[in-house]
């Protein structure tokens, strides 16, 4: 703060306190505006953290930037109110903002060449080559296993392409608008992004590098394959089936094929998957593998330790773990896409593999009228199992391996990644029935804990388990992919096949029942990663399961039951919604990327400053943006009353309110808040209120005078108990309630014994700016009584159109924007509610009584004509 500003402030303080008070008021109004904005931003970030809203990481960065600006503006207004007292506050803000930005920021992209490297070098540059290429290069360099030759188009090529076309900001601008809860917008934004990629120009150098590599790979102009190898792909977060592979590419069209692979980064399922894992677009750049097309006789997948093996296999083998081999004729894309069922076999994991179950041969079926022909010989299956064991030993964990058997009988490894949803011992935890990572059910009820569902009627059985666990919810039919977009939360999806597009709604699903599909398809891998129960192989699921019925799917046994199991007594259904949201957040954090937001929230939302009267309530103890907001708000309120003890100089000074309501209140008139007749009075009465919002609130407070009869004055008893010792009177200004008023504005801090209420409101003819913000906290009773009173307040306010948030004995509510008449009506109701609930925390018995009290108040309000319009 400049010396000139300090000198001007001191000059006003000594010679023009009225001017100083007006400046303080204007600054205070701005402070409150930035305070409201800051809390809204913190709340939105908390919604993202707790999983209530699922957005792209670019939105998180934008919110953090906006929060930084809002908090700095708020602190600037506080320093305007008293520059001398808060000179060092900006330094603490700088420190906290630095840690917040560090937590949410992503690394700057590396645009430096080379843009194309041989596969043999890829394992030395995993951040450039991407997960798929780096792992294949590791296999090639450290084993003798057969891996086809390939060239890697690096992640730097992607960054260079984006930078050359100046696409980063347009992409982020669209990603910031994404909400997974709005499927139509997701589809539209995805289409925009993919069109941007395909219409962009390849930089000349990059185009030359890609074409040179393509012609070197295929000098005879034989077709090539361009396969995705994004940086985050095939690691702890698999991205199984989310990106495209382009097959049969002429070498001269390799650049266009590469752009198609890059564009697949923005298809709806890939966007949804990445957002659910909390990863940023810029930190998942697309690298790609350029490799010759193999002349495939058949292809498929090995799970070196099957995460969900059939329970019909011998128990002693299941205890040791089994290897699964899945095969289809031709290329493997029809298998992993879910379009075609596989021939499946299971082998023991012993050094000399034994085939435990092989495909049934020669038996016609409805779907396969011709007898099936074995695609793999016994030796082929054992060779694949042996390759799988070697890959598992190389990477130190079970592997999901894609392979190709060419027409010459040679087997090639084309991908190896950790088994999604598996562990080092192949154990997959059971999914809680009716719960989606701790989220509420479709009807808003609590998730149902694990409970026995065996007694429920069986609707269908004999299906093939694909992903283990038990899930309950409302069955919804979707015969084709385009019908899945508007599925509500808590859905058991009944569909035809397990296409990868199902990934984009996976956060809304409790289970999936499909007519066809393979255990080896990409969606099956993603389902296991998310703990989603999936079964397939039911001939006509649309007839077996009625649309809209409540069902339970057992992904272990393959049975579908009618109804939902009853929760165990005393289980999680009694937990408050916030506890369930915290459980959901913990589950997401364990999945990887969301750990970053959890760290950031320590610097954003964690509230460490809780007691304004404590000596610890100081800038040096601020650890988060929320602390800074709380500090600035409390000190801003204190600054507005800093002149009261100085003879009331300023615009009329602060006047004591004379009223029949036993409340000690001082009123500070800033601008036309009192009628001119109040001038010169040492004490004022309610009849002197010209302030529209103050008059409406006081009308409600004093409407039922009998409620205040024989009650002691409402002062800050807690503060009196703490510091009095006979020094302060109960009507001392230090213990009183305060109101700052103008013609259309009121800010009240009301102390009622051991709790306080804060009302901040604007009630003017301009509807768009009118609002009520209300906070209530504390009480003299035990925690249970305080929380029961909060329940009464919450029920009433929610019915009156307030947006309400509660946390323990703290309630925050907001109403508006709305018409002036509506705001007046709500303020009067709020005054009546405060009068009726005073000392309620020591009188209320249980939750049923709380609800009855709230309903009775609302009924009397309606009778009196004060209910919601």
Quick rundown:
The protein is 37% helix and 18% strand. It is built from 24 helices and 28 strands. The longest helix is centred in the first third of the chain and has 33 residues, at 17-49.
List the helices and strands and how they pair.
Blueprint: H1 3-15, H2 17-49, H3 57-81, H4 89-104, E1 116-118, H5 126-142, E2 151-153, H6 155-164, H7 168-175, H8 183-199, H9 204-217, E3 224-228, E4 245-249, H10 254-263, H11 268-276, E5 288-292, E6 296-303, H12 315-320, E7 322-329, H13 333-336, E8 343-348, E9 355-357, H14 378-395, E10 399-406, E11 411-418, E12 458-460, E13 464-467, E14 470-478, E15 491-495, E16 509-514, H15 522-530, E17 534-536, H16 541-544, E18 550-554, E19 560-562, H17 577-590, H18 595-604, H19 625-640, E20 654-657, E21 665-671, E22 683-684, H20 692-702, H21 717-723, E23 737-742, E24 745-752, E25 755-762, E26 771-778, H22 783-799, E27 803-807, E28 810-815, H23 820-837, H24 847-863
Parallel strand pairs: 14-15, 15-16, 16-17, 20-22, 21-23
Antiparallel strand pairs: 1-2, 2-5, 3-4, 3-5, 6-7, 6-10, 7-8, 8-9, 10-11, 12-19, 13-17, 14-18, 18-19, 20-21, 23-24, 24-25, 25-26, 26-28, 27-28
Helix pairs in contact: 1-2, 2-3, 2-18, 2-19, 3-4, 3-19, 4-18, 8-10, 17-18, 20-23, 22-24
